[in-house]
Every structure is written in C-alpha cells, then in structure tokens.
Amino acid sequence: RTLALPPACGERVGCADHQQARPANAAMLGISSYDSDEEAAEPVAEPPAAAGAAAAPAGVQPKAVGVVAVAAGKAAPKGKAVGKSQSKEALSASRLKHIRKEVDEAKSATAVVQVVRRYLEDQWDARWGADALHQIAKRSTARTRKEWAADLGVKKLADKLKALTADHTSLPGLGNEGVDVSLKALDALRRMNFQEAEEQKDALERAIVSLVADSWKHPVKSLARLFWLGAPLKLQGRGGSGDYANLLPAELRARAPDLDGPDVAVLIAAMRREGLRDEALLQKVVGRLKVEGIHAGLSATDLVEMTEGLKELGGEDEAALRPLGQEILRRRGELNPDESHRVHAAFQAMKLPLPSVWMKPGAATKRGGSQILTTQAFAPQEGHEKKRRGNNEIERVSPPRVVRDYKMMSY
C-alpha cells in the first residue's frame, strides 16, 4: 500500500482543497483529519466487474482498482469453461515412446499393472495399451494370470482394447501400425481369457484384408500372431483374400530367418491344431531352434509346450533339441512339478533323455566337408569352481586352541 504525501501547498493533510485526493484507505492506516468539525470522507466503492473502469469517481482512478476492473472485465473465451480441464488431446510421440519404454522395461506383471494404473485415464493410447496387456499375459503364470484378470484396472484396459478391435474404423486411425496393434491386442485378450476365438473372428478377417492389401508388408511377428489366432477358426477373409490358408504359410516360410523365439513358439502351438501342419514350415521352424540365443524372451512354460509340440509334430532334430533341453535345465527352478514331469517325458519319448542333453566330457571329432573338427567338452567338478580374487594372497587365521590339560598348561 502507498501513503499519500503532504500536499505541495504546505497545508495540513485535512486541507479542503486536497481532501478528495486522499486515498480511500487512509483511515485504515491511522491517518485522519485534525479538524474536529470535518466529517469523515466516505470510502470510494470499487466498481462492479461488469461496469468496468468507467464506474470510478471522476478524476480519481486508483491504479489497483483499474487493474481489477480491467481483469474482471475480460470475457472468457467461447467454448472454454473457467476452472474445467480442456478436452484431452492426442498423446505426443515422445510421451508415447516414454510410456511404451516403461512397459517394455517392467520386470514383472505387477510393475506393468502399476504403469497401467498411472496412465490409463489421462494418457491413454491403444499402442501402449496393447503392449501392456500382452506383457501382463507373458509375465504371469497360469494362476496369477487369472488373478490379474480380476483386477479392476486390468479389466478397464481390456474393455478399451475390446472396443478398439470391435470398431472397424479404428485401424486407419492408428496409421501403418494399426493392424499390428490390433493383432497384439487380440493376442493379449485371448491369453488373458477376456475373449474366446469366435468373438475375434470378425476382427481377424478385417486384419487379413488389410494385410493382403498391403502385400503382407508388416513385421513377421504380426503374421505369426495371425497364424496362431486363426488356428481354431476357419478364416476366409473378405474382398478377394479367400486364399488366406495358402498365402500366410507361404509368406511365413519365405520370412523364416526373421522369426524369433516367441514367434517359433506360437507357430509350433498353431501347427498342433488338426489340419494346420505344414511340413515345409515345420522344417524352417526347427532350423531356427538351432540358432544361438533363440530362446530369449520365452517363459519356462513356453519351453515345455514347445517341447511337447516338437514331440507331437515329429520335429526330432537332435541339433535343435539339445540347446532347447539345456535352456530348460538352466531354468529348471521356474518349473512346477507337473511341468518338470511333462518335459522329462517328452524328451524321453524323443529318445534323448533330458539329463543327457549336455555333451559327454572329452574330445570328439567329426568331419566337416574337407576338414576334421575336434570338439572338447568339459564338465564342472567339485572344487574346480573359480575362487574369489585375493584368496591366494590372504591366509586364513586359524582359531585359537583351547587346552584342557592343566598339567600341560604349566609348562
């Protein structure tokens, strides 16, 4: 607040000529007239917001009052309510990338659900939603998958994805990856038992039409998902894509080198269905199992089901079964008793007992073209483990001896 300075004429503050120039809040600050017969000046009322600055007394226009009048006189823009949030805008590319990274780097289904609860209402996008539900399905066991399916947040996520896949206008809105997002959402909904195969038939046939129109120029993972999702159904496609049953296996065979572990697992699971076995595709899939690191991204349950599928389909290639068995033995702690029994029985039926998937210790030679290759296999032995650094430099101190013979203690 500012105080009025004495007038230049040298008169008292209560001078009649300068009485009107005194601010209205002078009495509040303890400044009053010294004349006993002077009446107290009436406070100047602030003008209402609608009247604007014109309602102020003539010749007096306090700065603070003027600011209030101008601010209050501004009309709110049309279509925007004061104090209410504006309509949700589309998620930016950078923000979408950040959320998808969070979902991808989550170490457990619990961590994925936390991400879903954080962003579902305010920052929804079908692309990260499909990723999230698929991660929950892949990072859960058969028991915890049922528990997560009863979670309120996961149910809301599933409902949004159901609406996406049921809407025939939703795919063009997602651009080139619309079909891929839809297939991933259908995969997750099927794994979490939110939808049965028959409920997805229309959405899958629309996906076939889009893939054929694009000449199958989509990731091979989407084609493998479509093969698995359509296995229980008799899909015909629409609009000239009726030869889907021959087109998709041929495309998968041509792009077999791009298949990863999860793709191989779903293809083997699909070919176990009656009438879907493709011998040429099976050979391509078994060949991929010989590649080092192909089992990355597979759960222990996936490994067990893949083993049973190879036994059922006759894919008994020792070069493919040995790495598979070694991976299962490395992760045997993740198997429950039933899965452990099943995988041992499957390997035994293929005449390769699971404990023998490791090579026997010693040297072995075989001819490779014009060369003779020698392979040396080692088996870990007790006491041969690598010791910690520095153990050879520090000698352990022996504990003090306790002598119970008091006669010997006297010497």
Instruction: List the uncertain runs.
Output: 23-41, 47-87, 390-394
Order of helices and strands: HHHHHHHHHHHHHHHHEEH
Assess the beta-strand content as a share of residues.
under 5%
Question: Counting H and I runs of at least 4 residues, what is the number of helices?
Answer: 17
Number of strands: 2
Relative helix content: 40-55%
Rounded to the nearest angstrom, the radius of gyration is 39 Å
Brief account:
The protein has 411 residues and is mainly alpha-helical. The chain has helices at residues 63-73, 93-105, 109-119, 126-138, 142-149, 152-166, 170-173, 178-191, 201-213, 220-229, 244-254, 261-271, 279-288, 300-313, 318-330, 337-349, 406-409, and strands at 362-368, 371-377.
Q: Would you kindly provide a written description of the structure presented here, covering whatever features stand out?
A:
By secondary structure, the chain is mainly α. Helices cover 46% and strands 3% of the residues. It has 17 helices and 2 strands. The protein has a two-stranded antiparallel sheet with strand order 1-2. Strand 1 and strand 2 form a beta hairpin. Helix 14 runs parallel beside helix 16. The longest helix is centred in the middle third of the chain and has 15 residues. The radius of gyration is 39 Å and the shape is globular.
Summary tags:
411 residues; mainly alpha; two-stranded antiparallel sheet; 2 strands; 46% helix
How is the topology of this model organized?
Layout: H1 63-73, H2 93-105, H3 109-119, H4 126-138, H5 142-149, H6 152-166, H7 170-173, H8 178-191, H9 201-213, H10 220-229, H11 244-254, H12 261-271, H13 279-288, H14 300-313, H15 318-330, H16 337-349, E1 362-368, E2 371-377, H17 406-409
Helix pairs in contact: 2-3, 2-4, 3-4, 4-6, 4-8, 6-8, 8-9, 8-10, 10-11, 10-12, 12-13, 12-14, 14-15, 14-16
